[in-house]
């Protein structure tokens, strides 16, 4: 790795209710790098992401265990200025009748719609329309978000993150609850953004979500990183069977992976 990493961890422990829910010996993510975190329910993936986004603090160490661009004490604002997050949890919060353009413009304020009494500038609206166009959903701009399909809302939430030009986009289980059409478009959005130079950090249970541009895979199980390396070495039947604890077979075609149970 050349240059200063975007994010590094050394001897990091997160403890909740007296239990270590994640321990990381060493990890570094380079600027612009794409990565997928794969692991079973409760493994510690979201905790890992929340360390990155400064929503979770590790146990104190004399030598700061987490650094963001070399800074041992980055603020939430430092991280938010360059990292966007799209998650199914955020999706659950979309429960108001608002035009899509307001949802996307709200990304500038970090809110799901536009805050009361806020007059949004023309520049923000232009940026929001551009973000929708980047994802191929410009035609949804004036629709009531509550009338969209689950897959369309998920893409609107990606567009909402794009309004502040993130350098890194975290996709936390982005395809959960989507039908094949929704999955297709969300994976296509990840593909487009990665090809445009945005670093993609993906959290998933399924190799199918891992777009070809992601080469590095982190396997997380029982609060620890059990493997960190190129996907061609880790996305195979043996590693997946060990990771999820049931017999699984992995196939690859044109850089895309698929996984099924063997019985
Ligand atoms: N505040 C908390 N108090 C106690 N336990 C917690 C707390 N937060 C998380 N945990 C536990 O820590 C473990 C790791 O949680 P985490 O959400 O990071 O897992 P995950 O890999 O993202 O799981 P999933 O795939 O189900 O989303 C889980 O067993 C969870 O129950």
Automatic annotation (TrEMBL):
Superkingdom, natural source: Bacteria
Transmembrane region(s): none
Keyword Lyase among record annotations: no
Pfam families, per database record: ABC_tran (PF00005)
Residue ranges annotated for the ABC transporter domain, each copy included: 7-247
Keyword Nucleotide-binding on entry: yes
InterPro entries in alphabetical order: AAA+_ATPase (IPR003593), ABC_transporter-like_ATP-bd (IPR003439), Metal_Ion_Import_ABC (IPR050153), P-loop_NTPase (IPR027417)
Keywords associated with the record: ATP-binding, Nucleotide-binding, Transport
Any one Gene Ontology molecular-function term assigned to this protein's record: ATP hydrolysis activity
Family statement: Belongs to the ABC transporter superfamily.
PANTHER family from the UniProt entry: IRON TRANSPORT SYSTEM ATP-BINDING PROTEIN HI_0361-RELATED, METAL TRANSPORT SYSTEM ATP-BINDING PROTEIN TM_0124-RELATED
Name this protein carries in UniProt: ABC transporter
């Amino acid at each position: 790795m050349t240059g200063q990493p975007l994010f590094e961890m050394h001897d990091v422990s997160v403890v909740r209710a007296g239990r270590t829910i994640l321990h990381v010996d060493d990890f570094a993510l380079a600027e612009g790098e794409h990565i997928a975190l794969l692991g079973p329910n409760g493994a510690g993936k979201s905790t890992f992401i929340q360390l990155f986004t400064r929503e979770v603090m590790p146990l104190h160490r004399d030598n700061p265990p987490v650094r963001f661009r070399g800074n041992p004490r980055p603020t939430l604002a430092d991280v938010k200025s360059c990292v966007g997050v799209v998650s199914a949890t955020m999706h659950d919060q979309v429960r108001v009748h608002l035009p899509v353009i307001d949802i996307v413009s709200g990304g500038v304020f970090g809110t799901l719609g536009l805050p009361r009494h806020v007059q949004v500038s023309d520049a923000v609206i232009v940026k929001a329309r551009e973000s929708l166009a980047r994802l191929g959903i410009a035609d949804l701009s004036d629709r009531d978000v509550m009338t969209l399909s689950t897959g369309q809302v998920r893409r609107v939430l990606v567009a909402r993150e794009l309004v502040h030009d993130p350098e890194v986009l975290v996709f936390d289980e982005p395809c959960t609850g989507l039908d094949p059409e929704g999955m297709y478009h969300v994976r296509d959005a990840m593909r487009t953004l990665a090809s445009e130079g945005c670093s993609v950090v993906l959290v998933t249970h399924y190799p199918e979500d891992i777009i070809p541009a992601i080469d590095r895979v982190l396997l997380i199980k029982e609060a620890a990183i059990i493997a960190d390396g190129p996907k061609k070495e880790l996305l195979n039947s043996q590693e997946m069977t060990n990771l999820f604890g049931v017999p699984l077979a992995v196939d690859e075609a044109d850089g895309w992976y698929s996984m099924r149970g063997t019985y």
